[in-house]
Prior knowledge:
Elements: E1 2-7, E2 12-17, E3 23-25, E4 58-59, E5 72-76, E6 88-92, E7 100-102
Antiparallel strand pairs: 1-2, 2-3, 4-5, 5-6, 6-7
Amino acid sequence: MLYPRVNPEFRQLMFACRNCSFEEIADNSCVFRHEVLHTPSEKTMVITDLGSDPTLPRTNDVPCPKCNGSQAVYFQSQSRHAETRMTLYYVCCNTKCQHRWQS
C-alpha cells in the first residue's frame, strides 16, 4: 500500500511504500476522497391508520384504484434531492381498504 508523503527538496507530492523504498510521483493532488451517498427511503409511512389522521389533507379528486373509494389523504415525499421529482403519496380513507399508492 502506498502512503502519501511530501518530497521537501522538490516540493512534490509522492506516494511511497513503508516496507520498501518504492516511490512514485502523484499524478494529482487528491490524497483521500470520501464520498457519502445518501439513498432516501421512499417507502410509504408505516403508520397503520393514515386515513383517520386529522392532520393530513384530504381529497375527493383522486379515487382509490383498488376499491374506487372517493376520499383519500395525501402527503409529499420526504426526499430533498434536487434530481428527485415531488411525489405525492395517497392512502384510501375507506377503513376496509386503506390502499396506498403514489402519483
